């Protein structure tokens, strides 16, 4: 037996081999200590008793260790089964490629070989995780964002990378560009937000109804801490659009001259000197009501080509920015329109950036050119469509000349070269507005007119309109 050697270790007593290998017998005394040999001394009996007690204690400890190991195995097996069952439950909805899982701790027996996907070393005896089709030391299964071990009951993934649920939300759950909070989920548990088609701006749907201001030029909702200029007619203008805004009639005259030269370059010179006036929203709406025949882009009219004699209130001096970012001290002046030809004036809404003001002016100048050249009364989609085509052409010429202005020595080209990056972005946005307009008159009219001009050229298209009142097919 295992404890027999312990009994005799260190004893001076010797047992003869012949006696130790005595013949087997069937009687019950065979397994008892023999008394037919030498007699044990009292000290030797005490040594034997202590040795037996020590061996029994070690045997009990060994059995206890075995029982503890069996208990640990049973505990790990139960945990693994519970986690495996939880993986069969449908995961909560995530955003993007994110999914939520439960890490699976598994007991790793001796003799098997697994390589940790985190540290690329062999996993020894003990627990390991089986996640994302790989094996991990528990301390090596770390969040891709914060690089801390994932010990939570659930984790999220993006691609093949694990994340804490909180880290995943911070990195992948969209935040509102206005209030900077996480965009909330709707009653169905889905993330719902609004996005501007050009600026790729995301914001909570509630901001469309909670009074959050929107720039009258670029149409953006900007962060709450961003300042706006409150114009006298109720419009809001963001500070970036304000940088190139044209605020009064005299300030717009150089732009008017540039667009007249642009028309001359198209062989469409406007011989009559048509007054150009910058006005407030109310004056523009009143002038629209007084015009008998006109085409208006609803819901906001930003330019008019007038043919009737009227009294117009024009912006004579640009306002200054007062307390609370409000435009104050703006001076207006009445202006009487006298009919000397088929066009009495061109009105443009004040306070818009230069490129937007120019595109509106190029559009209204086309109305004036058609009337002054004696074109028949055209169908709305044809007249507005060709006017939008010319406005789009002017924007393209401004943006292309600005990109190549660095190689030019002219002062005007140099001014364009110094145009801020945001202003060029604004020009692209105004082009996008014309191209993506969904209205049957302005949008469909522009696309039909642009197709005709690209196919036949501007002059041939205008000649066909003169003859037939329609775009060439």
Rough outline:
elongated
How can the largest sheet be summarized? 3 strands, antiparallel
Output the structural class. alpha+beta
Helical run tally: 13
Distance between the termini: 109 Å
Mean pLDDT: 75
Task: Give the low-confidence spans.
Answer: 1-42, 82-98, 406-414
The radius of gyration computed from the alpha-carbon positions, rounded to a whole number of angstroms, is: 44 Å
Percent helix, as a range, is: 25-40%
Record the strand order, biggest sheet. Answer: 1-5-6
Number of strands: 19
| Strand residue percentage | 5-15%
InterPro entries: DA1-like, DA1-like_dom, UIM_dom, Znf_LIM
GO molecular function, one term: catalytic activity, acting on a protein
Keywords: LIM domain, Metal-binding, Repeat, Ubl conjugation, Zinc
GO biological process, one term: regulation of DNA endoreduplication
Write a structural description.
This protein is an alpha+beta fold and 473 residues long. Among the domains are: 74 residues, Cysteine Rich Protein (Ribbon); 228 residues, no CATH class. It is 39% helix and 14% strand. It has 13 helices and 19 strands. The strands form eight sheets. Strands 1-5-6 form a three-stranded antiparallel beta sheet. A hairpin with a 5-residue loop joins strand 9 and strand 10. Helix 9 packs across helix 12. The longest helix is centred in the N-terminal third of the chain and has 46 residues. The radius of gyration is 44 Å and the shape is elongated. The N terminus is likely disordered.
């Amino acid at each position: 037996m295992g404890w027999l050697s312990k009994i005799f270790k260190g004893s001076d007593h010797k047992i003869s081999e012949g006696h130790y290998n005595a013949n087997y017998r069937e009687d019950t005394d065979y397994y008892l200590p023999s008394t037919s040999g030498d007699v044990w001394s009292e000290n030797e009996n005490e040594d034997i008793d202590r040795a037996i007690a020590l061996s029994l204690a070690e045997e009990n400890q060994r059995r206890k260790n075995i029982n503890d190991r069996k208990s640990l195995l049973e505990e790990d097996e139960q945990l693994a089964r519970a986690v495996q069952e939880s993986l069969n439950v449908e995961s909560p909805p995530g955003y993007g490629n994110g999914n939520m899982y439960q890490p699976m701790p598994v007991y790793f027996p001796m003799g098997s070989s697994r390589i940790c996907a985190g540290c690329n070393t062999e996993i020894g005896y003990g627990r390991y995780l089986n996640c994302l089709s790989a094996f991990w030391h528990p301390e090596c299964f770390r969040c891709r964002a914060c690089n801390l071990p994932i010990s939570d009951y659930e984790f999220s993934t993006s691609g093949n990378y694990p994340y804490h649920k909180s880290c995943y939300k911070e990195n992948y759950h969209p935040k509102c560009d206005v209030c900077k909070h996480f965009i909330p989920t709707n009653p169905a548990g889905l993330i719902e937000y609004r996005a501007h088609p050009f600026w790729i701006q995301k914001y909570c749907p509630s901001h469309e109804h909670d009074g959050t201001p929107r720039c009258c030029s670029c149409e953006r909702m900007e962060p709450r801490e961003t300042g706006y200029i409150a114009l006298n007619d109720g419009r809001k203008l963001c500070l970036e659009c304000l940088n190139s805004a044209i605020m009064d009639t005299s300030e717009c005259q150089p732009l008017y001259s540039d667009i007249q030269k642009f028309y001359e370059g198209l062989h469409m010179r406007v011989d009559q000197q048509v007054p150009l006036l910058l006005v407030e929203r109310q004056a523009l709406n009143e002038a629209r009501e007084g015009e008998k025949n006109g085409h208006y882009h609803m819901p906001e009219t930003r330019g008019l080509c007038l043919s009737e004699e009227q009294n117009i209130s024009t912006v004579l001096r640009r306002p200054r920015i007062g307390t609370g970012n409000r435009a104050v001290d703006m001076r207006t002046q009445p202006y009487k329109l006298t009919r000397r030809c088929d066009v009495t004036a061109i009105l443009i809404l004040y306070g818009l950036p230069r490129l937007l003001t120019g595109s509106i002016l190029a559009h209204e100048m086309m109305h004036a050119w058609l009337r002054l050249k004696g074109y028949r009364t055209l169908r709305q989609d044809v007249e507005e469509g060709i006017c939008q085509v010319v406005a789009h052409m002017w924007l393209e010429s401004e943006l292309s000349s600005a990109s190549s202005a660095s190689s030019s020595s002219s002062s005007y080209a140099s001014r364009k070269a110094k145009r801020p990056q945001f202003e060029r972005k604004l020009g692209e946005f105004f082009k996008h507005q014309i191209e993506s307009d969904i209205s049957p008159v302005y949008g469909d009219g522009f696309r039909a007119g642009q197709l005709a001009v690209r196919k036949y050229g501007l002059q041939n298209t205008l000649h066909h309109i003169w003859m037939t009142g329609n775009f060439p097919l």
